[in-house]
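Entry 14. Structure prediction run on the chain below.
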Amino acid sequence: MTDSVFTRRIRRDIPAVSVFEHERAVALGEVAHDAPPGGGRGLRLAAVLAVVAGLLACGEAPPTGWSGYVEGDYVHVSSPVGGRLDRLTVRAGDRVRHGDALFALDAQAEQAAQAEAQARLAGTLAQAANTTKGRRSDEVAVTRAQLAQARAQAVLAQTAWARQQNLVAQGFVSQASLDAAKAALDQASARVAELQAALRVATLPARSDERDAAQAQAEATRQALRQSDWRLAQKQQPAPADALVAEVFFRVGEYVAPGQPVLSLLPPGGVKARFYVPETEVGALATGQWVGLRCDGCGEPIPARIIRIASGPEFTPPVIYSNAQRARLVFLVEAAPRPADANRLHPGQPLDVARLAQEPK
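Output returned:
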């Protein structure tokens, strides 16, 4: 502790030899209680010197609480898809509301991929729908006309075969002519059966396996389109909550890697106190207890509830070193103020923390 103005004046008025002798006498208890007349001044001087010596010997008073600081729980906003920063709509210090646009990255490649995925989906859906239908009406009409023609040929072959039977019975033609007529009739009947089957097939959809394959292909392209839509949406990031824009890390035109924060937000009430408690005192603390936070310019102490006590010790961080605290083994403790009081605190503020006797109202 340095000399005060008072002690410096005493030391200036008293000779150095006298100061030394009186200090030694006081330390050794050699000051007589029955001093001779005129020695009252010497006794008073000895008393003053004893007080001064005590002041000079005293060290820094131990703190009644703990030291700490305010920390912000920031939200770092990034895009999982990289790209050139195309638009930045906020600056540090702005306040944003939930859903407000923050920034946008160049999205030309994603837009092209989305258009491609949409085209592929349209094609696979058409193919899947085609498997549920028969042949076109005109194709069915062609088959029906061919069937009518075949039936007419069959009737003609039937008539020719009957005539050949009568002629063979009368002996006018040979058996070979009858056999040829029978073969023509069989051929015409087979043609009729073939076209009847073709007409039935023309009205049927594709086989079930083909329909399932077409549906699966359509679903695959649908999911590919969802991926394209998601990638395109990630190029524009809105505010996840009402917050204060704390920092902006990029400028328009710079390349942003995937997952790299473009800016940080501090939501309302997103601050907490971090302070360090000696290991001899941490046993008296528990989560849920209340402490009071003091800071420069904050006015009345701010109540905060303990939300975390570190499970392991550490050495006092250099940022809060003091004569009474250095080289101590401490435990990190975190406390959250009430939302109404959180705006009174700012990240980085030094704090003095003390335990509250009762829960604040």
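Helices lie at 5-13, 16-28, 40-57, 108-130, 137-170, 175-202, 208-234, 339-342.
Filed with the rest of this week's runs.
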